[in-house]
Design goal:
The protein is α/β, with parallel strands linked by helices. It is built from 8 helices and 5 strands, in the order E-H-H-E-H-H-H-E-H-H-E-H-E. It has helices at residues 7-15, 18-28, 39-45, 47-51, 55-67, 75-89, 93-104, 119-122, and strands at residues 2-5, 34-37, 70-71, 109-112, 127-130. The chain has a 5-stranded parallel sheet.
């Protein structure tokens, strides 16, 4: 299954609360998944731990990124698609970029750490799954 994960999933896997971290790690450790990604995810997760010299967290992210099978190369059409998606579904800019990247990479699903009630989880342009439970 081609899977695109957003920054929240990686952050929870690296340093989240025990329950959320376990759910994120289960996604990342699923051998049936092939991960696809964009430079936007890398930009969201790496700068702060690099600046704060949290080397273990940096290595966690780099290990994930090294295992990514396919990356978005040309972001110009992705940005155009993201603008359209954001306008149609009321998404924040970064969420729309993630959806557009996942679509460009033919992902089977986008996995997020957003609340199930968020606009991202209601977006119907591809399958979106959250690691958060309804009660959180």
């Amino acid at each position: 299954m081609r899977t695109y994960v957003d920054a929240g999933v990686l952050i929870h896997a690296a340093r989240g609360q025990p329950g959320l971290s376990a759910r994120a790690l289960a996604i990342l450790g699923d051998p049936a998944r092939v991960f696809v990604a964009s430079p936007f995810v890398r930009l969201e997760v790496l700068p702060k731990p690099l600046f704060l010299r949290r080397q273990q967290e940096v290595e966690f992210y780099r290990t994930f990124f090294d295992a990514v099978a396919v990356w978005v190369d040309d972001v110009r059409p992705v940005v155009d698609d993201a603008l359209r998606i954001a306008g149609e579904h009321g998404l924040a800019a970064m969420d729309a970029l993630h959806v557009a990247c996942a679509r460009a990479l033919c992902a089977d699903e986008l996995v997020t750490a957003e609340r199930p009630t968020s606009p991202l989880c209601r977006c119907d342009v591809l399958r979106i799954r959250t690691i958060l439970l309804e009660e959180t």
